Amino acid sequence: MSTAVILAGGKSSRMGQDKTQLIYHGKTLLAGAVERFSASFDNVYLSIGAPEKYPDIKAERVIDLYPGCGPMAGLHAALLKTPDEGVFLAAADLPFSSPAAALKIIEICGDNASAVIVRENGKFEPAFGYYTKPLLPFIEECLANGKYRMMQLFDVLPCRQVSPAELGELWREDMLDNLNYPEDYERLIGN
């Protein structure tokens, strides 16, 4: 079984509006992400802060048990909810995120607690990665102590750092380009 979790609980404060509802190729970014991952994964969950959000999206909900604590809270709720050993997180604001690349990252993970792409500049991409249940105790400790940064997970249990080269033809330079500001969206729809 493979499980993807689409992160859609952010505040979109830099965008000035809910970026998951921006339209690209005739559908919202959120609907596009759920559709893409549903075609390749056995289960797709929607990680949100409030159950009433996005009633038009047909995906099972994962509600944060630590509201307002970012992607770490979404990961925590997802790992608690799913019967699978791990979940693949994909931010809704990645219009070119690839389910095929996600499945390859899961395969590469092996016995590690997590696997994420690390770009040539050394930058980790935690909002597009695979995370397993052995991380749960540390995630709970972080959330209880007000530590919400995903990068803190990689200091505790082995993280498989996946290079773009390991993804081969699945890698695209724009795969991890997210939309944070209005000008990011303007560039997207201008292409």
Keywords:
191 residues; alpha/beta; Spore Coat Polysaccharide Biosynthesis Protein SpsA, Chain A; 7-stranded mixed beta sheet; 23% strand
Chain-wise SSE layout:
Layout: E1 3-7, E2 23-24, E3 27-28, H1 29-38, E4 43-48, E5 60-63, H2 71-81, E6 86-91, H3 99-109, E7 114-118, E8 124-132, H4 136-144, E9 159-162, H5 164-167, H6 182-190
Parallel strand pairs: 1-4, 1-6, 4-5, 7-9
Antiparallel strand pairs: 2-3, 6-8, 7-8
Report on this structure:
The protein has 191 residues and is an alpha/beta fold. It has a single domain (3-190), classed as Spore Coat Polysaccharide Biosynthesis Protein SpsA, Chain A. The chain is built from 6 helices and 9 strands; from the N terminus they run E-E-E-H-E-E-H-E-H-E-E-H-E-H-H. It has helices at residues 29-38, 71-81, 99-109, 136-144, 164-167, 182-190; strands at residues 3-7, 23-24, 27-28, 43-48, 60-63, 86-91, 114-118, 124-132, 159-162. The radius of gyration is 15 Å and the shape is globular. The mean pLDDT is 91.
Q: Terminal Cα separation, in Å?
A: 36 Å
> How many domain units?
1
Give me the CATH superfamily. Spore Coat Polysaccharide Biosynthesis Protein SpsA, Chain A
Q: Determine and state the CATH class.
A: Alpha Beta
Taking the sheet with the most strands, its summary is: 7 strands, mixed
Average of pLDDT = 91
What CATH calls the topology is Spore Coat Polysaccharide Biosynthesis Protein SpsA, Chain A
Estimated share of beta-strand residues:
15-25%
What sort of overall outline do the alpha carbons produce when their principal axes are compared? globular
Strand order of the largest sheet: 5-4-1-6-8-7-9
Stretches where pLDDT is under 50 for at least 5 consecutive residues are none
- What is the strand tally? 9
